[in-house]
What we know:
Elements: E1 14-25, E2 32-57, E3 60-72, E4 82-85, E5 88-97, E6 104-111
Antiparallel strand pairs: 1-2, 1-4, 2-3, 3-6, 4-5, 5-6
Amino acid sequence: MYIDLTVRGGELKHRLTFYSKTTTKSLSTGTDIISWTEEYCTVWAMLTPQGDRKAFIGDRFSQQDIDVVTLRYRPGINETMQAEFKGRRFQILDVMDVQEARIKMIVVLQEIH
């Protein structure tokens, strides 16, 4: 089976920024404080909405917006990070190196409301 590994620059029209998690201790309570202010990288990518997924959480339905991002391979992007596009924040659900060729990546995102 043939899988296209080419990443055409003209298809990468969306500017995404990836953030890594920073954890610090609260001086007053000693609890962990998590922030997403450390910018890891900013890349050109192709963002493709996959529609809404509805899930039953607790006693109510929740709408989850899922998007798939295609970009050139970038080492270090992983599921512990968040991404931002035009002020919208996303949790990374999955990161795939297509055919482990280190050419093309697919990242699955869920919008954080």
